Amino acid sequence: MDLKKVLPLFSYVFHPIFISLYGTLFYFIVSQTYIYESQVLLTLIQVGILTLFLPISLYYLFISLGIVASFTEASLKERKLPLMTQAILLFLLLKFSTSLNALPELFYFFLGGFSSSILAFICVLLRFKASLHMIGICSLGTFVYGLSIHLELPLVNTIAFSVMCIGFVASSRLYMKSHTSIELIVGGFIGVLSQVIFWYFWL
C-alpha cells in the first residue's frame, strides 16, 4: 500500500469540523457519568447540529458565495469568516447546551475549542496560517489524555492511537503542501495549550 496515497485521507477524516463530535462520542463511550440516555442523545444532537451540520451548511454557502474555495484548503483571507462562525457556534454550545455542572469534562473540552478558535483567528489577523487540522487533532489527543487521568482509566492504546493520528495528520498536511512545519507546530501548540489550561483548573 502506498502510504502517500492514503495520507490525504487523514485530512478529511480528522478535519477540524468533526473534532467536537469525536470528542463527545469518546467521552460518552468511556466515561462512567450516570446521566439519562435522553440527555446523552440530546447532547449528541446539539453538538452535531452546532459543530457539524450547521457549519457544513454554512461552508457550502460560503463556497457558493465565493468566500471560501475549498473544504480542506483556505487562504488567510478565507479563514476569517469560518473561524468567526466556529467561535460563535461554540459559544452558543457552551452558553445554552453544555452544562458545567452536569458535564464538566465536555464543558472544558468545548471551552478549549472556543479558545483555540479565538487564538487561530488572532493568528489570521497577524497574517499567520496556523494549521487548523493540527489544532483540532492535538485538542482531541490532549482531551483523551486528560480524560484518562481524570477518570483513572488505562487508555494507553487509545492515547498511543491518538499520538499516531497526530503524526499522520501532520504528515498529510505536509504531503498536501498545505502548511509549513512551523505552521503545524504552532497549530499543535495552540491545540494542546487550549486544552491543558482548562484541564489544569479542573483536575
From TrEMBL:
The chain crosses the membrane at residues 12-35, 41-69, 81-100, 106-125, 155-175, 182-202. Keywords: Membrane, Transmembrane, Transmembrane helix. The keyword Transmembrane helix applies. It comes from the Bacteria. This is PAP2 superfamily protein. It comes from Flavobacterium sediminilitoris.
